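General statements about sequence and structure are easier to judge against a single worked case. For one protein, we set the task of working out the structure tokens from the amino acid sequence alone. The sequence in question and its structure tokens are set out directly beneath this paragraph.
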Amino acid sequence: MGAQIEKSAAALYVASDIVLKVSQPTKAEANLLKSGSVLVSFFQPFSDPELVRALTEKRITAFSMDLVPRISRAQKLDALSSQSNVAGYKAVILAADTLGTMMPLMMTAAGTVSPAKVFVIGAGVAGLQAVATARRLGAVVEAFDTRPAVKRTD
């Protein structure tokens, strides 16, 4: 059958048997879902019981991707880590674009431009990708995290 383009998001929700959505659907979007359809999303069911109730009333089968454990066995389903990787990368690319200078050390006969100094708060998946991206762009990078799991022991 192939794919088709709908004229509006509302038309798309009403026509679809399966909806794949990164962020949590709004109450209005949940109301548009076709009864008996399937929703795959990061919708955090424990923090929004009203949304769960609305989906249940419409007999929506919902898979909350934020509940997939972040373990080796479930790595193929771990959409949160892959999205965090993209977020860390994109954050540095956007920051570099707005910086107004080059990231790496630049030396010419006319003078030297010091490398950009980047400070990353959080050393989770997104933070580590931000560190790696900033370093690849030539910045001097420092990172900080308050979680006990990443405490330095040396």
